């Protein structure tokens, strides 16, 4: 009877442990995916910030070019 009880308890222990192992592995996979998504989001924010800086530089250059053109037209028309 003791042997049978030991086998049953061992079986229950193994079944419980394998379930925990699977859960732990799943949690690790989810953590890795979350970390990857956070890294991707940070990279996207960085690229967006860089694009915004370039757009602002382009806008300033366009504003300066428009101002020069306005002065040239003003000078050419004598106003």
TrEMBL record:
InterPro entries noted in UniProt: Oprl (IPR021793)
Entry keyword Translocase: no
Region annotated Disordered, chain positions: 59-79
Protein name, entry field: Major outer membrane lipoprotein
Lineage: Bacteria, Pseudomonadati, Pseudomonadota, Gammaproteobacteria, Pseudomonadales
Keywords (A to Z) from UniProt: Lipoprotein
Bias kind Basic and acidic residues: ranges: 61-79
Pfam families: Alanine_zipper (PF11839)
Keyword Lipoprotein among record annotations: yes
